[in-house]
Structures are given as structure tokens and as C-alpha cells.
Amino acid sequence: MEELTGTAAAAARFDVGSGVAEALLRQVARLLEALARDPGFADVIDLRSLPMHDADRASLRERLGNGEIDASFDLVGKTRITETACAGVWWVRHANSDDCAVLEQIVVARVPALLLAHPADIEGAARRLATELGAPTHRETIHD
Amino acid sequence: MELLDFARGPALAFGLVVFVVGSLWRLAGVLLLPRMRDLSPARDGAPPAPLAALRTVLRRMWPRKEFAQATLFPTINSYVFHLGLALVVFGLAPHILFIRSLTGLTWPGLPSNLVYGVGVITLASLFAALARRLGHPVLRLLSHSGDYVSWLLTTLPVVTGLLATSHLGARYETLLAIHILSISALLVWFPFGKLMHAVLFVFSRGATGMRFSHRGVNV
Amino acid sequence: MTETMQLGDMLRRRGISRRALLKYASYMASLMALPPSVAGAMAEGLAKARRQAVIWLSFQECTGCTESLTRSFSPSLEELIFDFISLDYHHTLQAASGEAAEAARRQSMRENQSKYLVVVDGSVPTADGGVYSMIAGRTNMDVLAETVEHAAAVIAVGTCASFGGLPEADPNPTGAVPITKLVTGKPVINIPGCPPLPQAMAGTLTHFLSFGTLPELDALHRPRAFFGETIHDRCYRRSFYERGLFAKSFDDDGARQGWCLYELGCKGPVTYNACASLKWNGAVSFPIQSGHGCIGCSEPRFWDRGGLYKPLSAGTADVRKLIGIAAVAGVALGAGAAALARQRRASTSATEQ
Fold first, then answer.
1. Residue C20 forms contact with B (CB below 8 Å)
2. Exposed, middle or buried by CB within 10 Å (0-12, 13-18, 19+), for C246?
3. Block mean pLDDT (10 aa), chain C, length 353
4. Contacts across the B-C interface (CB distance below 8 Å)
5. From the CA atom positions of chain C, what is the Rg in Å?
6. Do β-strands C134-135 and C124-125 pair in parallel, antiparallel, or remain unpaired?
7. Range of the domain at A88
8. pTM of the full predicted structure?
9. Boundaries of every domain in chain B
10. What is d(CA A45, CA A144) in angstroms, rounded to the nearest whole number?
């Protein structure tokens, strides 16, 4: 997260306050209610596209708190997926290789799509494992 | 963007040139006219001519007691939009930059939000002036197209300026271009209509003051 | 080269999982102001696509556009685009040179007819038959015409290719023209900027790859996702502009407090680009944040707009001499009019003078 430079800090001082953080929390609450009613529900709030100062974002993060899961993976920069203190609300932070946040999202779902193993990846892994073990799978193909 | 380039470039240059040619033409033309010299001696106690001129210019900033009541609304309303225009033109930072680019002079600006408020009041006042002109039978009789053109070309910069600064109605570069074009239009018209009073009023009031105070009358 | 394997499989072999592709798609969707729900579809689209053949033509350019996209000192998500495309011809990046390079271009055109993308950076000179920029003995005009004939689409990258840029600036000795002036009958996208944001270039290519269509364009053929708003619209110093707090000179008190740079010539209000939100060099900073006004580098003819430091409210023409002549002319006319009046008066009246 970029630290507030002198100029940005000056600009932040003149802000009216974290009105945006409040509004976002209300939206999260609404989405969470929808998830509670329908476990198949999923929605994403893109934080980067919203006019928010770093102070707003930090206060929102604080309000949501931390949950039990903390996952990360690397693809040209670290992606960190943390469960917040509210079950079903996840905070996803994509960073580039300088660890600057390039995308931040709040995901309201049983589990964010990024944590799920993709069917194509599973298929590939199944074939690989079968080959390694030398055991025939019920669907041997010539592509192995 | 092409409209903005045209507005800031050839259009503004043309407006400024016509403004300078026209204003100096009229001013020089008036000041170099033959003058009627009063060969009679000055009345006792008559002030020197320049002082008399200045006094009359200042005295006529407010109507005489006898007429004050009847002309109260147009007097006050005119002051509102004159002062408003002055505050907007000389108080807004981008305008000061424009004047600086022409003369090199600069001074501190006013808060932009304040100028915006003054602009809105000025616009309302200008519309009130038009309403009076259209509503008052004598004024309507006396008014001709030149008066309405002068009103329009004074009001357009105020309207377009407010629209541009609020980013209302079109893309910003278009709004800014229209605002600058409206200034060019005003500059072109200025020397040839009643707007020239801005320069000439000093001389006309002064001349009257000199003539009458020579005979001992304070007008 | 034509690849028959789908991107998804090819990337998995290189250790880029479908999950990673989803991260990339989420990032791109956000950049292009698409709803986050589109990321899944975008990732699927990318996985099913074949490697896109791209021919990159470089004309009167400085290679800044390529530099912006390749970011030589730190890998970025944008650079992944090079895994998704088959860059069959690029002066700076390809291994082959000379005749071999030209042969590679022609082979790609043959094998991918009506499916390859042409990316162009640099303007095309047209004066004197176009001799001011020649590659492999042929004028840029020739090479452009030949290459775009069977292309799927043309992407003009950088202000030079989009609008003419620096070569086209006054007095334009080479007769430089933008790509849109020379290419008809093919869809052309402009991605201007000097240089353009890497996200704009990569995002547009990704959009084409995943969805097979070009993104929504504005009147100047620029993708609205990156060029739909002005710098001013997203500038973090906007509150100072609104309140009239302007820096008067570089590094003065106001400048150090981060005040608006309007008086120092900032063209932010009339410049459409995403620098204020995406920023540069991995979202570190952008010109205004570093204390310099926007120069308007993604707009046509920004070099000839009266100077980088002339504020928007000042005129661009140099009127000093004109005003001087106008003043003399005005006084002369006035004196002439007064002289005529005196003459008329002397000839018609016999009263006091």
C-alpha cells in the first residue's frame, strides 16, 4: 500500500471523512444478507474504481476485521485472500512485483472463485499424477 | 479540441486586435475633436478644471436626492452586476492568468467558490436588468437592437463561464472554447456599442463638470 | 506462427494455472471498468483462444511505446500479454534481423490471413514520396499498406501513430500523418499517450483476445475504458482547484503543499487519459503527483498548443506585435476622424473655433 506523501496527506486532511467507508459497509451488509438467504450467491466490489483515499480503505479494512483464513499465491506479484471477521466476506488484494496494490476487491461469497481449483487444472493434475504413479486411469489419452 | 485551439488562438487574437483598434479609434476620435473654449472668466471660487471634472465623475456615482427614490432599483441593480463582473473578471485565478499573459501584471485571486457565488448573483442581476428594460414602457421604447446585443454579449461570458466551471452541458474543452469565444465576441463588439461607456463615461462626466463649474454650478 | 493449442493448455504447461489466468482477468476487467463478474468470462475466453498473431510495425517513433509496455526493470502483469500473443515481427524484441525479419513478417501474414493484428507505433511520413522513413528499402507507406491489407484490425499505439505526435508538430518537415489517415476499410483503434499507459495497450489486446471484439471507442477511436475521463476528473489535487489554491511557481510554498498546478500550465482539464487513476511505473506516481502539470500528451497536436507551461486560460497566439500595430492604427483612425470633423466644421460654420 502506498504511504500517504506530504501532498496526499494534505489532500486527505481536507476530506469530509470516511463517508465512503460507511456506504461500502452498508453495501456489504446487503450482499451478505443475500448470501445468507442463498448460499450460491456471489458478488464482488471493486475498490480500486471507487474514489477512496488510503485512509478510507484502511478504516474499512479495520472495521471488517480478520477471520480465520489467510491465503496467498504469486503470479508476477503476490495475491492475498483473507477472510474478514464476517463469515462470507473476503478481502482480495492483488499486488504487482513491487508489492503495490493493483487491485483490491471485497468478495461476498461462500468462497472466492480464486480459491477454487479450476476444473481444467484438476483434469491436468489428475492426468499428471496418474502418469507419475504409472497407474492407468479410467480415461487414458494420448496427450499424456 | 480543435475548437479550443481556434478559440485560444486566432479568435482571441482577432478579438483583441479589433478591441484595441476600435477603442483607440473612438477615444482618439472624441478627444481630438475641436473643443468649445469658454472665453468668459471663471466664477469666483470655481475650482481648477481637472478637479471639477473629477468631482462631477464622483458626484454622479449616485443619483441626486430628487431622483434617488425613483431610480433606486436600477441604481442598486446596476452596481450589483458591475461590481459582480469586476469581482469575477479580476478575482478568479484563471482570469488573472489571462491578464498576466497580456500585460505581465498579476495579483492574488479570490477563492474560486466565492467567485462562483458572485457569478450567480451577477447573472441574476443581469437578467433583472433585462426584465426592467423589457417591462418599463419608456425604456422599451428607447431601446434598440444595440442595447440588447450589448446585454447579450455581456451575459454570455457569465453564463458560459459558470457552465464551464461546473462542467455542465458538454465536454470541458468545448465549454471552455465557447467561453473564450464569447469573450472574443464581446471584445469585437465593445468599441462599437454602448459598452464603450466604460471608457467614455469619465470624459463625458468630466466635460460636463468642467463646463458647469466654470460658471459656478456644481453638477 | 500459428498455434493450434489453446492458450489455457499452453499456459498451464508453462506453470500458469487457470487460477492465475483468473487473477489476470480480474485485474484487466477492473482496468477496463468492466464489472468484476466479467472476469470469469474473460478468463474462459482467454483460455479458449489461440495465440494471437501480432505484427508490430515501427515507423517514425522513439520506441517509447515498446518501453512502456515491456517495463525493462520489473516484470508486470501487463507483460503477460507477451505470453498470450505470438509477436511475429517487432524491430526491438525479435531475434531475427535483416531479410530474415522481413521474411518472418511475410510468413505470419500468409499463415494468419485476416486473423492477425497489426500494431503500429510511430507516424508515417508522406512528403517527397515518403522517403524520410524507409525500412528494408521500402517506404513506411508501402509497408503499412501491404501489411494491413489482410489484417483483422489495426491498433495505432502512441500519440505519433494515433494523431501524428512529435513528427507532425510544426513545421512537420516530413509530412507525417497518423495511421487513420492512411488505413481505410479496417477497424483502427488509437491508444494515444506519449508513451501510452502499458495497461491501455495490454488491456485492449486482452479484450480482443478474450472476447474477439474491440472495446467501446470514443469519437477519436480511443478505448473509452482508458480515455473516457480527463486527468482533471480523477486528479487528487482537484479540491485545491475547486477552492482556488494554485501553485505560482515550481517548488514554491503552494507547490510543496500539493496545490493545483493550473497556473503552471497543467492541461489536465482537457486531456483524456487514465494517468490520474492508474498512475505510472507500477502505480507509484504520475506527473502531477510529482509536481509537474499534465502536458496533455494523449491529445492531438499537444506540442503546438502554445507551450507546455501556458495556462489554459491564456491565449496561444503571440499578440504583442499585433496589438502594437493595432494601437497605432486605432489612434491614426481616430485622429483622421477628428481631422475630418474639424475640416467639416471649419467649412460649414463661421462661429467661434
1. no
2. buried
3. 74 86 89 87 90 94 92 68 89 92 95 94 96 95 96 96 96 96 95 95 90 92 95 92 92 93 96 92 89 96 92 91 94 94 82 54
4. 139
5. 27
6. unpaired
7. 6-111
8. 0.85
9. 2-31+59-214
10. 40
